[in-house]
Queue: 3 jobs
Job 1
Amino acid sequence: MSTPRSADRPTVLIVDDEPTNIQALAYLIKDDYHVQVATSGAKALAIAAGEPQPDLVLLDVVMPEPDGHEVCRRLKADPQTQRIPVIFVTGRDSAADEEHGLKLGAMDYITKPFAPAVVRARVQNHVDLKRKTDELEQLSQRDGLTDLPNRRVLDRKLEEEWSRARRGGTPLSLVMMDVDYFKPYNDHYGHGAGDECLRRVARALAGVPNRPMDLVARYGGEEFAALLPYTHEPGASEMGERFRAAVADLGLPHEHAAAAFVTLSVGVATRTPEPGTAGPERLQEAADRALYAAKAGGRNRVHTAG
């Protein structure tokens, strides 16, 4: 059973081993939500870990293993699913039962037999809260000026991709980029023009990668970075040149630059992590050194770390 999906409608996952209970809950909310169902804890965990994730889980407590309490515990223990709100729907109505469920991470408790108006109100409240929380989380991950992912996102993805590359023995490349002579640009054209310059540079850089796994982020100030998983050194160097060319092709006038337009210095580093190695600090240091070498070598060029 599933209601038609709409991009504007939140998704609620109903988990109960009794089909009649699922039907009763689904009937109450089907007009306002896309409804997914699971008749076992294992199926519920699989659905919650998929894409797109549900915005809310209505979870029965008394089910064959894993029961509702264990399902909630696993959801909250998994970083991929821990932010999905859970409401227990159960006939157990003692204070001890409710306290136990809340301590496991549930957001609310609905006891059977339930009042339809209460179910609708609590579902709406928690879905609205989840949507607002998601919006705040998205805002916290974007750079306010360029709308690129920010340094926080880059650092987290770098750790994740480094761990994945270490497990798989695959290469990981990092590209560090710096707008040349940006301080003179700001001083000459003004901070408003400087901000617009960074926005245009950001759009140009974001348009270069054609793989969803590649990440372009604002590193800070006039510095940008690109994380390229599964990318060997030749491919990373080629991408570095594409980034450089994309900014040069903007043709933004810059009276205080050697080229008379805005350019980019690019440093590229590639490493294949070995089992037992530490974090990605050495990759970052190599990319930084390569960027410094590009700037020292005359700017508007790509330097690849050895």
Note: Residues 116-140 form the longest helix (25 residues).
Job 2
Amino acid sequence: MLAGIELGGTKVLVLRARGGTVVDRETIATTTPRETLSRAVAVLKRWHAEAPIAAIGIGSFGPLRLDRRAPDFGVMLPTPKPGWAGADIFGTLTAPFDCPAMIDTDVNGAALAELRWGAGALGDAPSDSLCYITIGTGVGAGFAFNGRTVHGAMHPEIGHIRVPRAPGDGFAGHCPFHGDCIEGLVSGPALAHRFGMPGHEIDPADPRWDDVASDIAHLVSTILLGTAARQVLIGGGVGMGRTGLLAKVRRNVVVQLGGYLPHVDDSSIGRIVMTPLLGDQAGPLGAVALAMDALSAEGVS
């Protein structure tokens, strides 16, 4: 039996799985670190008493310290989420259990699940490299290359990349750190600021969506050029919730790349820039995939 925890800003999903098949799940509201993590541990202890947990995978919102050599490994770094900076995510969730465990960002986990069981597994030639972008309250991205997630000094923070602006777009941006970085341009709160109304009230025909599509496309083009990912998946409430936006993004990507990447053209772009095949299950299944990798790594060692 494997355990997966997807720790989000508003809710936590705790899962029990047999291999890649989820057999139980419980949802917990994200409140304070003490309350939230203790409730998750209580679920794991109950399940562990019924059938021993062989490995634990944790996919969490960030930023996180993911360097295992660091004294604060698995700890939440400074975050806008009140009260969560300095929370020991990994230590609190794994200390009661004598089993291998792995922690990563929720978007890295989602990328791994999509590579293994979702969009990356489509067709006769499975993908070896994939980027998963979520556009919602913020903008984040995870990368899975050659079966492993990507991080180094930190984990990727592509939400704070700046992109070329569409001609005539005077929106100043909404990020408190960088103004018009991509998160400050296309996240849910940024769109509400840009359009002057909540996201669900914005007219799909509003011409300012063309500027939003251009911004997202520049991010996708940067990822394709900078990482050589074979696929870029766009998820989250904005990414998956706007009919027609993905088509505009695809057209913009082809134009922006100008034929420089020979594998990206009008006929291939639909297979390269997609919505997540696993939908909103990519994150939870990502936590399970991390547990599977923790168990596999233990066997190798």
Note: DSSP finds ten helices and ten strands in the chain.
Job 3
Amino acid sequence: MIMLTGSTLTLDDVKQIVYHNEEVVLANESVQNIQKNRETVEKLLTDKQTMYGINTGFGKFSDVIIEESDLDKLQLNLIYSHACGVGEPFSEHIVRAMLLLRANALAQGYSGVRPELVTQLIKYLNAGIHPVIPQQGSLGASGDLAPLSHLALALLGEGEVIYRGKRMETGEALVSIGIHPITLKAKEGLALINGTQAMTATGVVTYLEVEKLLYQSEMVAAITLEGLQGIMDAFDHDLHMVRGHHEQVEVAKRIRQILIDSDLTTNQGQLRVQDAYSLRCIPQVLGSCWQTVHYAKEKLETEINAVTDNPLIFSEENKVISGGNFHGQPIAFAMDFLKLGIAEVANISERRTERLVNPQLNDLPAFLSPNPGLESGAMIMQYSAASLVSENKTLAHPASVDSIPSSANQEDHVSMGTIAARHALQMLQNSRRVIAIELICALQAVEYRGIKQMASRTRDFYELARKIVPSITKDRVFSTDIEKLTRWLKEEEDSNTQIRLNKGGVMHEQS
């Protein structure tokens, strides 16, 4: 059970809730803070104080004063009019993260909502009721207005949800589980949709999967090193220490630990003096990729505990402040930076695949074919990897440098942070397939070299992967293998990857 306070949520908490359905409860202190904050709103309304989005219109309509009798209708109209999302829906994991992060933001007690509204979000989360939320339509400033409006619709009993794997009308799901829809009061519609939870939820899910894929890419690179009889001197501790980048030092260390007992790797001068960059520079490149991951992690850890709606109500000072905490620039930058790391994981992987299949670059059978000429082997797998890498280069264009004015130029600078996060996730999915292709080729290469000579860790990983895809003994539809291995990499629970080693595995280097 994880308790929401608004300020203590961790990325590991998010992982447990989103992926493992850990139960969520709202802290008693948060309930009190939310209630106190709501009472401030009610008092200010009684005192006829003008407050943006509470008793005024929205955006360019901020100067339009709303009659007291229409305040609840104002919030309902807001949700209806702003539910303009289009395209394919977000995954259930991302929607779960959106429900969680929206509840956590409101839990701090600065948004002027009732405790019942936050409780409704948590009820949906715990019951597995996932609103159908289209991915496209957010500018990433004024918050993720369109996506979060679709989330809000479900709280009202409208729109559609996914419940127990079935897409249905929200009302049908609520009846089956005994949850009643909520009615919005003054400020509550705006509080639900004015925030960065679509981009942040997408960013968190992407981050969690990128971290896993990076560890896996190190293991796959290690198998490729064995398949190509790579030179281990390039991973020497002293070499990396004199440059000083921590992430580079750690990648080199993990590669040394993985391959510590391999009889397939070589030393400089044994077969050749030095390897190509895609082998020799693994620590430098992947270490830099880790830097983008760490930056994104830092910004996400802040944002998942941030209050990002507008206006905010400060009960102690009895004041309402209109500001711009909904602006997604911090997450937009973080996601665009992360995209560079994702792109390079795939870029260098594809180059290693080329070295595995190109007979001009190795002494292995051409394209790892069991019968070169009659059978093409892994030839076109490299094409697919190259295509995915090229697509990533297009998606890597920074979304955060773009801005289109909206709301009659009242909202004249926006972040496009949700686009950045969505593209990062697309790139991750592409890159996972590129790593899967390298793994298929690396597995075949080490078979030619001799499985018994592999390091104990890579051999364990080899055995696991071979349960998913068999050896290439003849040409077949390799698309099936790529997709199977891609799913396995996504779903694998840290079984034999570097993740376990990084968390204190039993493997140690000899002094």
Note: The chain has a mean pLDDT of 93.
